Amino acid sequence: MEEWRLKSVYTVCRSAPLKTSWTDANPGRRFFGCAKYDGKANQCGFFEWFDPRTCPRGMEVGPHLMKKNKALQSELDLQKHTVKVLKVMLGASWVALIVMGVLLFSTPK
Ligand SMILES: [Zn+2]
Residue 36 C-alpha to ligand 1 middle, in angstroms? Predict the structure, then answer.
C-alpha cells in the first residue's frame, strides 16, 4: 500500500482522519486520531502516529515557526478588521458626500 495516499483509517466508532499536530512537542507531525475526539467521552480514543518522531532540528525550529505564524495570523486578523472598519467609513463618507451634494445643489438661490 502506498502510505502517502492514506487519508484516514477506520476505527471502532467511525474513522480516524490524518491530522497534523501543532504542539511544541510534535510540530508538524501527522497522526491518525479518532474523528469524534473532542476531549469528551463518547469516542473510541484511537490515536496513532503516522510520521516518525520529529528530527532534532525540526524540534528546534518548529515551535519558533509556529509562534511566528500565530503572531502573523493575529496581525492579519487585526488588519482584516481594520479594512472592514475603513470600508464602512468609506461607505458612510460617500453617503454623506452625496447628501451634502444634493443639499447644496437643491437649495434655491
Ligand atoms: Zn473513534
Answer: 5
